[in-house]
Design goal:
mainly alpha; two-stranded antiparallel ribbon; 4 strands; 12 helices
């Protein structure tokens, strides 16, 4: 875990966010932090990331890009991290006068944040440093829009149409009323108009739903649930993943 602290301290300012995820009790996590001196965030989840991410051993590490793409599995080299961070864009420092904007961004109300930024920048007599910060934040939000659209388009081109559709839906919600939402909705309609791609999207949605439902099921019932998806949506990415989950569950003691 010391390596994660080093990565967090070395690259946080450049845009790298180290996050550990566990389903252990808070007391065990507190003890872990005390013993290891972990300085990075640790999320205690109620879901099942191990199944969702296809994890078979612990600990496991993934590097995820800003568009949600898994860039690397395992421990990356410093050279790899520095290369990935060339395209990263850390969130700018914000003055207190822009706290409302920051809150809106944290809540993923990005179109509202852009409107508030436009109002702020339209006012005369604002301190120069605050105007500069507002412009940097505005640029970051617009970058988030363009990188999201680009990532979704790449996902669709690579055949991962469910992730593309999911991203387009998120962008349409986050940027409602902004041209980004219009672009995302148009792209989503195009995906859904293709019969085979729609089947892939439907399969991905069913798999996500199964993952949620499986948390409350016995192993045998979870296996049957995933087997039904593998059979019904045979030939899709989701069906292949469902079958891999079945295999992992069957191999568990």
């Amino acid at each position: 875990m010391g390596h994660l602290n080093e990565l967090n301290e070395k690259y946080a300012a450049k845009g790298l966010q180290v996050i550990a995820i566990t389903n252990e009790a808070r007391g065990l996590v507190d003890k872990f932090v005390e013993e290891t001196g972990a300085t990075h965030p640790i999320v205690i989840e109620s879901s099942d990331s191990a199944t969702a991410w296809g994890i078979s051993g612990f600990p496991s590490m993934f590097v995820v890009g800003p568009d949600g793409t898994i860039l690397h599995k395992g421990i990356p080299s410093d050279q790899q991290i520095e290369k990935w961070l060339e395209d990263a864009k850390p969130f700018p420092q914000a003055p207190r006068s822009l706290s409302k904007v920051v809150d809106a961004i944290a809540d993923m109300e990005l179109s509202g944040a852009l409107k508030d930024l436009e109002k702020f920048l339209a006012k005369e007599g604002q301190p120069e440093e605050e105007v500069a910060a507002a412009r940097e934040i505005q640029e970051w939000v617009l970058w988030r829009a363009s990188s999201g659209l680009e990532g979704a388009a790449k996902a669709a081109a690579s055949g991962d149409v469910y992730r593309a559709a999911k991203t387009y839906r998120e962008l349409a919600a986050w940027f409602k009323g902004h041209e980004t939402a219009d672009t995302a909705e148009t792209a989503l309609k195009e995906l859904l108009s293709d019969k085979d791609r729609k089947r892939e999207i439907d399969a991905g949605e069913k798999l996500d739903q199964a993952r949620e439902k499986a948390r409350d099921l016995s192993k045998n019932k979870a296996i049957k649930l995933y087997e039904s998806i593998a059979k019904r949506y045979e030939g899709t990415r989701a069906a292949e993943e469902a079958q891999r989950i079945v295999t992992r569950l069957e191999n568990q003691r």
